[in-house]
Amino acid sequence: MTENRGAPWLAVFGAGVMGIGIAALAIGRGVPVTLVDVDQERLGTARRRVRDELRLAHLTGALPRTGPAGELRLAESAAAVADATSVIEAITEAAELKAKVHREIASVVAPGTLRVTNTSSIPVDELAGQVPCPEDLVGVHFMNPPYLIGTLEVVRGPRTGERAMTAVQSLLSALGRKGIVVGDGPGFVTSRVLHRMINDAANVVAEGRATVEDVDALMEGCLGHPTGPLRTADLIGIDNLVDSLTVLHERTGDDSYRPSELLLRKVAEGDHGRKTGRGFYDYGVR
């Protein structure tokens, strides 16, 4: 990749729902991507899943149908991204795993290379304290699907440097996204507010006070929420939501973030939302 060093070349770690979505967004905007995952099965289906995301993005008009598409490369280890100009980690919401991946990334990229953690709840400085060159680390909260949500949280940790802040805004501009800079802390802004609401909505349903459909209809019709909290939970992924709620509960001590028993039951039963075909709603695909 040395010949591309002067142009943007993005590395994305994690070929799960968010990693695939971020890769599709970048490719659709003409930015080449190296997608890294140690899971051979997920990596084996990555091209098809990126292609499917691009098709949906084009159908909805979220990404342009014309213009150059970025190249997609697949890799099994961090060694493949040494020449990346920016790196986004988009693995599961587990602080120890994220720190491990960021240490691997920092060991192969040049100092000064932008390193992004895609997180919905883990404080950036918690990771920065465990990795080299913490000044290169920035948090960005991409939401699902990344090609459809145009405004993102950019989380500046106490150790994040000016060069990294300039680089992340440049990257988001290349991806056609607007970044709003917020302060560090568990859940930042969106998850701290939204996840509590979703948790409460699940508790209301579990208590038998309203149906899933009625909770969403009230929040849409009365308060202007575009999809309703429980349909939003299906879009986020209920398993991801529970992970984030657990982080918030552990780090704030606020019991309102303790994951609802209904959410925990859905995760245990494999009903994780849209990606599994069933969550609070049935999407007809299993």
TrEMBL record:
Pathway: Lipid metabolism; butanoate metabolism. The keyword Secreted does not apply. NAD(+) binds at G14, A15, G16, V17, M18, G19, D37, E93, K98, S120, N144, K275. Gene3D superfamilies: N-(1-d-carboxylethyl)-l-norvaline Dehydrogenase, domain 2, NAD(P)-binding Rossmann-like Domain. Belongs to the 3-hydroxyacyl-CoA dehydrogenase family. This is 3-hydroxyacyl-CoA dehydrogenase. Keywords: Membrane, NAD, Oxidoreductase, Transmembrane, Transmembrane helix. The record marks H141 as: Important for catalytic activity. GO terms for biological process: fatty acid metabolic process.
